[in-house]
Design a protein that fits this description.
29% of the residues lie in helices and 9% in strands. It is α+β, with helices and mostly antiparallel strands and 112 residues long. Helix 1 runs antiparallel to helix 2 (73-89). It starts with a helix and ends in an 11-residue tail after the last helix.
């Protein structure tokens, strides 16, 4: 719930994180979760560091619409939900596919 609240707050300020994954969530000694690493974040009113069609994020945790260069708050929330669901199933997000295992990096522009 803390992660969803943090992402909703960021979105209310016009910011999408775009790379939510376990390594960007820190748990302090009082049980608070901190959302970190806004390096790929996108601000509504800011200059884009990426271009239309660019895909950024970590494959294993990306919402499907991110592969089309689309996304909003729901896309940010996809990662913690998928991670939680995969833990409940006892597998890895994206079923541990080779694409997911190799996806801990940024992608460039997909060509048609």
């Amino acid at each position: 719930m803390q992660v969803a609240d943090a992402l909703a707050h960021a979105a209310s300020q016009g910011i999408l994180h775009r790379d939510i994954k376990p390594s960007n969530l820190l748990l302090d000694d009082t049980g608070n979760v901190w959302v970190t690493d806004f390096g790929l974040a996108k601000a509504d009113d800011g200059d884009n560091l990426t271009h239309t069609g660019d895909i950024v994020g970590t494959l294993r945790y990306m919402a499907p619409e991110r592969f089309n260069g689309q996304g909003d708050l729901r896309s940010d929330v996809h990662a913690p939900v998928e991670h939680g669901a995969s833990m409940g199933r006892g597998d890895r997000p994206a079923n541990g596919s080779a694409e997911a295992r190799d996806g801990d990096h940024q992608l460039g522009v997909l060509q048609p």
